[in-house]
Amino acid sequence: MRAPNYLLALALAQVGWNNSETARRLNQRALERGHPGLAVDRSRVSRWIRRGERPRPPVPELLAGLLTEHLGQPYTPALLGGVFK
Q1: Looking at the predicted structure, is the pLDDT value of residue 82 above 80?
Q2: What angle do CA 28, 38, 20 make, to 5 degrees?
Q3: What sign results for the dihedral spanned by CA atoms 12, 17, 21, 27?
Q4: 82, HSE (Cβ side, Cα atoms, 13 Å)
Q5: Tell me, what's the pLDDT at 26?
Q6: Residue range 5-23: average pLDDT?
Q7: How far apart are the first and last CA of the chain?
Q8: Where are the domains of the chain?
Q9: Neighbours of 27 (CB within 10 A)
Q10: How far is CA 23 from CA 16, 26, 66, 83, 85, in A?
Q11: What is the pTM of this model?
């Protein structure tokens, strides 16, 4: 097991999204960007945060883009913690 991803948890707290909202937004963005097979749920987001699991592409890039838009500052997968590199 990896260490918890506190950077990701902090970014999601700043934007005010819980795990369900994060999953919903990621799935919506994936559809918009041509990734219809992506199916993130709240338990998966929780594992990224609590267990430090590594999400598969294109999730890191999609999430960084969503956070950049909603927080008004640039985010990259690397800024969201080591598991997003």
Answers
A1: no
A2: 55
A3: negative
A4: 7
A5: 97
A6: 97
A7: 17
A8: 6-84
A9: 17
A10: 13, 5, 11, 17, 19
A11: 0.91
